[in-house]
Input
Amino acid sequence: GAVVSQHPSRVICKSGTSVKIECRSLDFQATTMFWYRQFPKKSLMLMATSNEGSKATYEQGVEKDKFLINHASLTLSTLTVTSAHPEDSSFYICSARVGDRKLFFGSGTQLSVL
Amino acid sequence: GQQLNQSPQSMFIQEGEDVSMNCTSSSIFNTWLWYKQDPGEGPVLLIALYKAGELTSNGRLTAQFGITRKDSFLNISASIPSDVGIYFCAGLGRDKIIFGKGTRLHILP
Output
């Protein structure tokens, strides 16, 4: 199946710093990618939909200035957590949609803000 | 946001037992997907279903796309320890993707 590469898998940062997470589709072009947040033992919570060449669409309650999304090419979307604080600590996952047929996930990024 | 009704929420079974879980929705979907997520990892696609009534197997896993296009089930036969994890369903429509809340599978020693 298609491969979605997410990097880094784990990051620890100081409060107030910014962290960038990358999501790449390795063997297909993804016009649409999605970013999720997941708390321990909970389901995936959609944060935003990332569209290549246009602005991301954020879900209600997600701060667009806090979680910056850039989808600069058909194979790369990035999520930047700006001025991170401990409450931003979470597991972040990206996914890429292949037409109307399938959705593939990255391996996730565990963010810990000290 | 909108969610699928996935049940059961959790299951405790003995190794070797069969497992069944399902998802229902008030919306019609074009595609049903089933995923497994291990701790600290992203969900991995297990089975994809594209037509109403479709029954698809992947090893010990079998999933079906409901005739009404509003539901799907996943069965796991002869469970083994590595089946432990969280299983998610997802319904894909033209403009939406909706996830179930997951079924957490535990296998008793």
Q: What stands out?
A: Chain B touches chain A at residues 1, 3, 30-31, 33, 35, 40-45, 48, 50, 88, 90, 92, 94, 97, 99-102, 104 (CB under 8 Å). The CA atoms of residues 33 and 48 of chain B lie 5 Å apart. The mean pLDDT of chain B is 92. Chain B has no helices and eleven strands.
